[in-house]
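Example record

Each entry pairs one chain with its bound ligand, molybdenum atom.
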Amino acid sequence: FASENPLDGKLGLTLLNDRPVNAETPPEFLDDAITPTDRHFIRNNGLMPDTTAAEGWTLTVDGFVDTPMEYSIADLREQFEVVTLALTIECGGNGRAFFEPPASGNQWTYGAVGCSEWTGVRLRDVLEKAGVQSNVVYTAHHGADIHLSGDADKAPLSRGLPIDKALTDNILIAFQMNGSDLHPMNGAPLRLVVPGWPGSCSQKWLTRIELRDQVHDGAKMTGTSYRVPAFPVAPGADVPEEDFVIMERMPVKSLVTFPANGAASGLETEVRGHAWSGDRSVSAVEISTDFGATWSAADLDDPVNDGAWQNWRANVSFPQAGYYEVWARATDSEGVMQPFAIDWNPKGYLNNTMHRVGLQVG
Ligand SMILES: Nc1nc2c(c(=O)[nH]1)N[C@H]1C(S)=C(S)[C@@H](COP(=O)(O)O)O[C@H]1N2
Ligand SMILES: [Mo]
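Structure tokens for the complex follow.
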């Protein structure tokens, strides 16, 4: 794969890094209710596996289970209920580009998020069939991708979930995306999809799920990876590693997908986008066209299923020609609203500040 275009089969993505491949989707290309495969972002921590062929691929389920199991993809299809769900994956570092002082890592702006339709079997069903032993506290996910160093003993990423989360019913071991094979960069032929939690939980090129009697300590589970300070810290603070905790659900957030930032607009236009809040639903989306001075409610759809983002739209009119910004803010089912400003953390995770789109009207 190294010599091929990393964005083959993708359309309009912005490449942030080519080794490992990281590419985000400009918000105006996320306008569809269901994100087409060619618009789904890519976040790799290592290099593509040697093969992404379904033939011969196996998934091992072991660790503290009654019966360790090994499945081909055909076995999974035959032995478990196959379900299709629209599920939102957002990278924990989406919005990192806006931290001040800056945080190192991929400078994601808005587009490390997508909501495709995933087909697979429930993680819960697969774990229950193996028999989850009473001492299990955490899962460990293993993939076939290759560490940047080329060292076969190192994994680029191996993360896990608290067992209670792993046993919820909308986490999929997926072998299809939008009705076709997974895109190689999105984890073909088999991946986890854990909606609403940091994208890193959704192991791609999945080969093994191990049940552990302690919190997983695989690659990027420890240190400052996908972890944030346990308490609010001042911008630029030097936080000792022992004060970091593992990120869990992603916060309430929304995106304006039409019009595009910088677009020309008439005095009246529809504004639309999506909103989501990990493990929760969104109860309201509001729009401001006067820099937050006044707000009005957008029309908000229910999610098509638990774990999918919600679509919203509003008709806005501007009093006269000129430059405006459209701001969107979502409020979730627990009454938590998107903030105006970033609660800074050293690695630039969980930025859910309001999306602002500039418009030239008239
Ligand atoms: N095996 C493996 N799985 C992985 C990763 C990885 O580097 N290797 N990256 C994770 C991260 S950090 C994110 S945000 C999601 C992104 O999924 P996508 O590339 O399909 O958009 O995949 C996750 N799964
Ligand atoms: Mo991520």
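The longest helix spans residues 123-130.
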